[in-house]
Design goal:
The structure is a single chain. The chain has 339 residues and is an alpha/beta fold. Helix content is 44%, strand content 16%. Helix 7 (193-202) packs parallel to helix 9 (252-263). The radius of gyration is 19 Å and the shape is globular. The model has no long low-confidence stretch (mean pLDDT 97). Nicotinamide-adenine-dinucleotide binds at residues 6-7, 9-13, 33-36, 38-39, 59-61, 81-85, 100, 104, 123, 125, 157, 180, 182-183, 189.
Length: 339
């Protein structure tokens, strides 16, 4: 089987490629990624040494380029991770989010229609459901929760989900969608909460917590997400949406404190900064459907996953130090300079 993974030079896509190469060495794995600021070819170094892996530097919005790859490689399954993924950037520059996340999805699905496919899988997010109030811990996102987005990022992801549903209903494209909660683990770009706090703490820099730090996210170790997607593409039902999450809700402030403690850094590094515009309060997934239908359960407890993640950042300093010494310096100054 040939599996085409888009966005495979980013955080979750690269973890998924390594998961496939380990768990399904009989499959061919193709990666399509245009290497935006968030894509890093060095992340795929070990994959590039495998004979059953190939990398294509192509933008998913480039219809001709995408069709050429489909024509030549005839993938059986497409898993679309490629996206602009950072909420703060979407607040600054929404347009690229609409281009990649919506129009790029359309190009990929058109290619699937033209060349034929066993499955098109859209990697979506729990952020399409909007947020939940802090004072209703009994509420969770199910697959039936209405879409109700807050940021240009989540609106673009929800739009893509609607388009995927439309291609299934109108053209009979064999699709599935997964909506996962916040991931953490190796190769997480250091603009996101957990890797940013680890990198700043290691450099004794202020730890910028938005607002009061009361916001809650439902954290899942990235390998558990990869296993969920692998199950969905092989055993999931066409046309269905699966929520993925491990009931691991944590306040931002508690995560940052935990990182300080694990690294032996003082909590006095924590600095409260101006809140994100339209900041979602709480995300919480009900994963009953994927558990009942596909037997999926998360395997990594947060206490273990966060230690493994911190160790990975300690052991792989060159990976993130290269990133934070380049263009990232300007990004950081723009986003945090006057906050
Ligand atoms: P990421 O930003 O780390 O990686 C995105 C990758 O996509 C990069 O390699 C980038 O170069 C590539 N890319 C961007 N635009 C492209 C384009 N036009 N053509 C080709 N490649 C392009 O993102 P991530 O955190 O790994 O997220 C991957 C997917 O998972 C996204 O669709 C995101 O919405 C979804 N998701 C992420 C999380 C999370 O916690 N990070 C949770 C749920 C869902
Ligand atoms: P993030 O990692 O950007 O993921 P998302 O917004 O997609 O959930 O942010 C996670 C939470 O951490 C979110 O509530 C915003 C907050 N946050 C901070 O407090 N400080 C920061 O510097 C960043 C990047 C995020």
């Amino acid at each position: 089987m040939t599996i085409l993974v888009t966005g495979g030079a980013g955080f979750i896509g690269s973890n998924f490629i390594y998961y496939l190469l380990k768990e399904h060495p009989e499959d061919r794995v193709l990666c399509v990624d245009c290497l935006t600021y968030a894509g890093n070819l060095s992340t795929l170094k070990e994959a590039l040494e495998k004979p059953n892996f190939r990398f294509f530097k192509t933008n998913i919005c480039d219809r001709e380029g995408v069709y050429e790859i489909f024509e030549a490689e005839k993938p059986d399954i497409v898993v679309n991770f490629a996206a602009e993924s950072h909420v703060d950037r979407s607040i600054e520059t929404p347009e690229i989010f609409l281009q990649t996340n919506i129009l790029g999805t359309q190009v990929l699905m058109d290619a699937c229609r033209k060349y034929g496919i066993q499955r098109y899988h859209q990697v979506s997010t729990d952020e399409v459901y909007g947020d939940l109030p802090l004072d209703r811990p009994d509420l969770f996102f199910t697959e039936k929760t209405p879409l109700h987005t807050s940021s240009p990022y989540s609106a673009s992801k929800a739009s893509a989900d609607l388009l995927v549903g439309a291609y299934h209903r109108t053209y009979g494209l064999p699709v599935t969608i997964s909506r996962c909660s916040n991931n953490y683990g190796p190769y997480h770009f250091p603009e996101k909460l957990i890797p940013l706090m680890i990198a700043n703490a290691l450099n004794d820099k202020p730890l910028p917590v938005y607002g009061t730090g009361e916001n809650v996210r439902d954290w899942l170790y990235v390998e558990d997400h990869c296993r969920a997607i692998d199950l969905i593409i092989r055993k999931g039902t066409e046309g269905e949406v699966y929520n993925v999450g491990g009931h691991n809700e944590m306040k931002n402030l508690d995560i940052v404190k935990l990182i300080c403690d694990a690294l032996g850094k003082p909590q006095s590094l924590i600095t409260f900064v101006t809140d994100r515009k339209g900041h979602d309060m709480r995300y919480a997934i009900d994963p009953t459907k994927i558990h009942n239908e596909l037997g999926w359960l998360p395997e990594t407890k947060f206490a273990d996953g966060i230690q493994k993640t911190i160790k990975w950042y300690l052991d792989n300093k060159p990976w993130w130090e290269t990133i934070i010494s380049g263009e990232y310096v300007h990004y950081y100054e723009k986003m945090y300079g006057n906050r």
